[in-house]
Amino acid sequence: MSDLAARLRALPAFPEDLPVLDLETLPEDPTELFAAWLEEAIASGARQPHAMTFQTALPDGTPVGRTLILKDLDEHGFQVSTRSTSRKGRQLAENPRAAMLFFWRESGRQVHVTGEVVALGEDVSQRDWLARPTSDGQPNPEWQVYALQPTEIEFTQARHDRLHTRVAYRREDGRWIRCSDR
């Protein structure tokens, strides 16, 4: 083992008191659990609890990730925004599938969301643009709000023994199915 490997192994992991993911009390709709975990992260004072790694793909399938901010979650899906002409905007136009990975270190929780991405209407996009701190009050025709419509959501609750608790949901025939194959 190299010196770096030994130093990395010795780094502290999670706080002593970790929440427990009770598999017996899960909601039918995983967005309810996501919203509860996000609210807990906000209430805990975690910095940027709405930040996530947003992953798209190059034409050859190579994944590309960057950190974005969740703008909203509603019946349209998990919302982010960017210029339609940006690298990620072009990637979404070519392949409208993406993934999000939220990680709340303070609670040892992460949520992985995958699905199809759709562009929302001009009214939603311009409202978002005008609310940005850098907006000059003028419309931006390149600004676009996208909604990731989840087809799979996986929740992971860390444990000190590294036998983390995981539960996945998959959307089938318009309803959520809890998966035990992960």
Whole-number radius of gyration?
A: 18 Å
The beta-strand count equals 9
Order of helices and strands: HHEEEEHEEHEEE
CATH architecture: Roll
CATH topology heading: Pnp Oxidase, Chain A
Strand content: 35-45%
Helix content: 10-25%
What is the overall pLDDT average? 95
Integer tally of domains: 1
Describe the structure.
The chain is built from 4 helices and 9 strands; from the N terminus they run H-H-E-E-E-E-H-E-E-H-E-E-E. The protein is α+β, with helices and mostly antiparallel strands and 182 residues long. The protein has a single domain, classed as Pnp Oxidase, Chain A, CATH 2.30.110.10. A hairpin with a 2-residue loop joins strand 8 and strand 9.
What is the strand and helix layout of this fold?
Layout: H1 3-10, H2 30-43, E1 51-57, E2 63-69, E3 72-74, E4 77-83, H3 87-94, E5 97-104, E6 109-119, H4 122-131, E7 143-157, E8 165-172, E9 175-179
Antiparallel strand pairs: 1-2, 1-5, 3-4, 4-7, 5-6, 6-7, 7-8, 8-9
Task: Give a concise summary.
This protein has 182 residues and is α+β, with helices and mostly antiparallel strands. The chain has one domain (27-179): Pnp Oxidase, Chain A.
Characteristic key phrases:
182 residues, alpha+beta, Pnp Oxidase, Chain A, nine-stranded antiparallel β-sheet, 4 helices
